[in-house]
Amino acid sequence: MTGVIEAFFKFLADYSWRGFVGILVASGAILFFPDALKVADWARPLHGYLVAAFIISAAVLATFGVTAIQASIRDRREKLADLRMVSGTPLTATWGVSLTSLPLEKKPMMVLICQMHFAHAENWSVILKRAYLKGTKEALPMAEIVVEGSCDEQPESICIGLTPLKVKPGQNLVGKIIFVDQFNDKHVSEKITFRPNTIPSSMHANRLQSSPNCVFCDRPVALEDQAKEAQMTAHTTCVWS
Length: 241
Ligand SMILES: [Zn+2]
Known about the structure:
9-stranded mixed sheet; Immunoglobulin-like; binds zinc ion; alpha+beta; 2 domains
């Protein structure tokens, strides 16, 4: 008897719900339309087994159905975290210019810095893997941000490197950051105003003495031609070419 039960559960585990649809339809047809199918004589002595097969396959299909619905509800809940965001002090939101890390591909990269408070009421952690502005690509991997729940006290410091530049020299950049979580779902921030992180000209002057040539065109840079938001020696016209 144990062997039969084991075989039955193995059957349940191995066969998909489609197998049970077959059993349900076949046993139901023989039970309810024995004359039409011309199986009345054959089916009569098997009546008890057919009823059992019909009821069991119906019960198994109902269980499959309930399980599938529960799984889809759970998936939906887990995949769409209701992540809330509040910007930190606007003073910390700045943009600057650096260089992409690929040595052969010298491109200007926009570096955005800001602070953000995150919260959610899920009973699991939201892990933010990537962040970018619409129309840009990440040129630097972002440090992963783990949002435990509703009471993260400190704002997170965000620092992302993006290409291409989406801002003109000396101007504010206004945009929404798109965060991507561990389920590849996107969470969009409110509009953030990034001020230009203008580097003091005394610092540019110092650097021009030790590295006078533009990283892009390799020609000397005069102080007045230096891109004010760039962390490296570069002509304004070469950064925004
Ligand atoms: Zn240049």
